[in-house]
C-alpha cells in the first residue's frame, strides 16, 4: 500500500465513472482524508463510494458526494458552497460527443460539448483556485534532507485537469472534442503562470491520457469498436491504458513528488503521440 502522499481534502469531478472513479480510489489509497466527489450520474457516485468502502482501508477518507451538472453555473455555486477547504482538485468530467466532421456538427452539439469539457472545467478551476488561495503553505511531507528543502518544495494546492492526447494531435471526426482538450491544455499553462509563483504556490497541470478502457471507449455491449482498434494500434504499446494508470499519474501531479512541475501536459498514452 502506498504511503500517505496526498493528505488533506480533494475534489474529483466526473467521479462516477472511468478515470474519475479510479482517481478517487487512488487518492483514498494514497492517504486523502476528505474526498468530495461530483458527477451528473448520482448512481455512479454511489458506486465509487462503495468501491472505496470495500477497500477496507485502515483510515478511509470521509466521502461527500454532491451530484449535479457541471455545465450549470447554479450547480457550481451549490457544489462549492459545500466545500470549505481544498488541497487537491482533479477535473475529470468530460464527454466525447458525436463522431462527425465539422461541416456536419450542429451548433447545439458544439455548445453542449464545450459547456462541459471547457466552460464547465473552467468554472471548477476558478472556484478551486479561490479555495486553495486561502490555504497555508504546506511543506513537502515526505523525505527531504532539510526543513528548508521541505519548505521550498511546499505548496498551497495542486490542480490536475484531465485533457487528452487529442489535445495535442488531431483525429478524424472529433474536431470539437480535440479543440476542447487543446483549450484545457492552454488554460492550464496560463493559469500555471499566474498561480504557481510566490505567494500563491498552487501548481496546475494536465494529464493527456491515450485510449483508456472506460465506458467512454466502449460501445453499448461493452465491446471496443472496430474504429477504436486502429487507434489502439497507433500506440507503440499496442494496448489500451487502464483507468488506474491515469489515476496514478494524477496522484503524482497532486503530490509534492512533482513539486517542480507546473503548467505541464503529462502524456500517459502508451506512446500514441510519438508514433
Ligand atoms: N477514456 C479515454 O480513452 C480518454 C482519453 C483521453 C481523455 N479522456 C478524458 O478523461 C475524462 C474521463 O473520461 P472517462 O474515460 O473516464 O469517461 P466516462 O464517460 O467513463 O466518465 C466521464 C464522467 O463524466 C461525467 N459527466 C459527463 N457530463 C457531465 C456533466 N455535464 N456534469 C458532471 N459530470 C459529467 C459522466 O457522468 C461520467 O461519469 C474525460 O474528460 C475524457 O475526455 C478519456
Ligand atoms: C450511471 O452509473 C451507473 C452505475 O455505475 C451505470 O450503471 C450507468 O450506466 C450510468 N449511467 C450513465 C447514463 O452513464
Automatic annotation (TrEMBL):
InterPro entries: NAD(P)-bd_dom_sf, SDR_fam. Pfam families: adh_short. Keywords: Oxidoreductase. One of its GO terms (molecular function) is oxidoreductase activity. Belongs to the short-chain dehydrogenases/reductases (SDR) family. This is 2-(R)-hydroxypropyl-CoM dehydrogenase. It comes from Cucurbitaria berberidis CBS 394.84.
